[in-house]
C-alpha cells in the first residue's frame, strides 16, 4: 500500500527562507503569519493529510461514488467523516476573508494546505477545491445579498460549490452553450439545460451545494458575449438562512472516468431550476474566469502534488528493491544484488522528479504570493507588478506544471518495473489521477495559446518584460557569487532562448497565426523551465548563504545546491531545442490535407 509523508520541511523552507514571508508583515493579513504560526499550520496540515486523507486514497479509487435512483450520490467509505474533520479543523478557511468567517491569512499558506490535501487524496481535494473557486467568483462579482446568503456557509465548508461550464456538444468554445435562463417575475431566473463533467456536482458530505452555472438569457448574442452567470443552489435558501425547498436540478449520472474515482463527476440536469444572476447580464464569462483562474492554479498544484506522492513511493521502492550491480562495482558485495537506487537510469528518473517537484512547489508558492500582493501590495506599482506576474504565470503553472507532473508520475511508475503496473502498489492510480490535470480547466494546449496568444502581447508586452527584468536582475546578482555563477550563466542562456523565441513570434506570428499555434506548447515549456530555473537560483542563493554562515542543517542545504546543479545541467539546456522547434514554424505541421490522415483499407 502506498504511503505519504507531507514535505513540511521543504514547504517551511520556501515560505520562511526563500519567500521570507515575515518581511511582508506590514501588509494586511500578513501580520499574523509569523514563522511560528506558519510552522504550526504547515506541520498540522501535513499531519492531518498524511494520517486522515492518504489512507482513503485507494479506498476512493476502488469504491468510487454511487448514484442512487433518486439522483442522490454517496461518496466512498470514510470520505464523509474525513470531510467533517476537515471542516471542523478549518483547513478550508485559511486564506478566506475574515468578514465571512475566514482566517484572512496569505494565500501562500492556503496553497500549502491545498497541496498537502491534493497529494494525500486528489479526489477528496476536489470537493473543497471547487468550493474555493466558487467563493472567489461570488466574492468578486456577487451582490451584497448573495455574499451574505452564501459565503459564510461555503467558507465554513458547510456548503460546497461547483462550476458548470461544459455541455455535451461544446467544451472550450463556451459561446455554443444552450442552457437557457428565463427571467421570472420575482427577479430570479428559470435555468434549463444539461452540463457535463461537473466535479463534486452531487454528494452526501455537505447540506447544500451551490452551483455556478453559465447560461444565456432570451435574445442573448449567439457567442461568448451572450453568456451570463447564475448561482443555482441545490436547496433554496430562506430569508433567515435556513434551507427551503429542493431546487429542480439533479445528477443525471456519474461519469465513468479513468481516475479520480472518489470524486463525483456528474452530468447535471437543470429543469427550470431557480437561480439568480451574478454580476451583469452577458458578462458571465468574465465572472467565470475569476473562478477558472483560481481553479487553474489549483490544478497546477495537483500536477506536482501527484508527482510528489509518486516520487516518495518510488524512492522507497528503489532503496528496497534489489536487482543487478552498480556499473562502478558492487555497492553492497555481501548482498545478492544491489538496490536499484544505485543504477544511473533510476537516479535519472528520481532526480528529474526531485528537481521538478521542489522547483514547482517554489513556483506555485511564489505565484500565491503574487495573488496576495495583487490585492494587498503596499503601492500601486507593487500591486500592478504582482498582477502582471501571476497573470503570466497562471497558464505556465497549470500547463507546464501538469505536463511535467504526469511525466514524473509515469517515470515513478517505471521505477517499479512490473510492480508499477499492479494496482496494490498504487503507482498506476497516481498515473491515472494525474492525467486529468492536463485536461480540465482548459486543456494544456488552451493554456499555451492563452500564454502566447493573449498574455505575451497584453498591455504592450508589459508582463513578459517585467518577467524578463526580474530574471535578469537576479541572474546579475548571482553571477557575483562564485559558487552560484555557473548556474546563473546557464539560466542566462536559457532566458536568452526564451527572449529569442518571443522575438520570433513577434516577427512571424502576425503574418501567419498558425506559427503561433504551432509553437505555443514549446514556448510554454521554455517559460516553465526558465521559471523553475529562477526558483532554483533563489533556493540555491539561500542555501549557499546558510552554509557560508554555518548551520546545523547543512545536509538539507547541500542537497538543495546539488539539486539546483542537476536542474541546470539537465533541464535548462532543453530551452535551446524547444526554441529551434518554434522557429521551424507551422509549414510542415499544416501541410497535409484531411485525407492524408485517414487510414486506407
Structure explained in plain terms:
With 601 residues, the chain is α+β, with helices and mostly antiparallel strands. It is 54% helix and 11% strand. It contains 17 helices and 11 strands. It has helices at 8-18, 35-53, 57-63, 79-89, 107-120, 122-141, 144-155, 284-320, 344-376, 380-415, 427-435, 444-455, 462-479, 485-508, 513-549, 554-570, 574-582; strands at 66-67, 73-74, 159-164, 180-183, 189-198, 208-216, 227-233, 235-237, 243-246, 249-254, 266-278. Strands 3, 4, 5, 6, 7, 10 and 11 form a 7-stranded mixed sheet that branches. Strands 1-2 form a two-stranded antiparallel ribbon. The longest helix has 37 residues, at 284-320. It is globular and about 80 Å long. 52% of the residues are buried. The model has no long low-confidence stretch (mean pLDDT 95).
Short summary:
With 601 residues, the chain is of the alpha+beta class. It has 17 helices and eleven strands.
Topology:
Elements: H1 8-18, H2 35-53, H3 57-63, E1 66-67, E2 73-74, H4 79-89, H5 107-120, H6 122-141, H7 144-155, E3 159-164, E4 180-183, E5 189-198, E6 208-216, E7 227-233, E8 235-237, E9 243-246, E10 249-254, E11 266-278, H8 284-320, H9 344-376, H10 380-415, H11 427-435, H12 444-455, H13 462-479, H14 485-508, H15 513-549, H16 554-570, H17 574-582
Parallel strand pairs: 3-6
Antiparallel strand pairs: 1-2, 4-5, 5-11, 6-7, 7-11, 8-9, 10-11
